[in-house]
Amino acid sequence: MPNFLDAIKGFGVTFGTMFKPPITEEYPEKPGPVAPRYHGRHQLNRYPDGLEKCIGCELCAWACPADAIYVEGADNTEDERFSPGERYGRVYQINYLRCIGCGLCIEACPTRALTMTNVYEMADDNRSDLIYGKDKLLAPLQPGMRPPPHAMAPGATDDDYYLGRITPSGGQERSDPGHRSSEEVAG
Fold this sequence. Notes:
[4Fe-4S] cluster 1 binds at residues 54, 57, 60, 109. With 187 residues, the chain is α+β, with helices and mostly antiparallel strands. It has helices at 2-18, 59-63, 104-108, 134-137, 158-162, 182-186; strands at 42-44, 69-75, 87-95, 114-116, 131-132.
């Protein structure tokens, strides 16, 4: 008797869905919405004045279990400054043939330079095109940003950049009257 009831339940599911209209997705022509927290393609972010957030520390490469990230750091000079501080990521590559989308690289980044976007269409017919360099990973320049290399905002320190006190025009924001710079604290 129990086998007969199980068969009736199974047929009930079949008959219940048999008369519903089919759901057709028109994917390539009309891509559907993506969940807001979906982890897709990586992006290297910038500060509001255009300097890069990546400091070339290579922590993301060390955290990657698939060994998909390659970072080569270099020193900033006063003539060529790509990021605040001493170093910047001169070479940054992500091999999407290896990337498993785990997000451990995002967690390891101390400056929030690396984040993941909602872009999910990364298929290609050429293997070498799936190795993304800085040219594909860097966030586009927004209005008011200057392309690096350029000097830091006048009077700004590394701490001002890391604490978000830089405006898009490259000025320094002093909303905290009790703020002391690192030179004032050390002296």
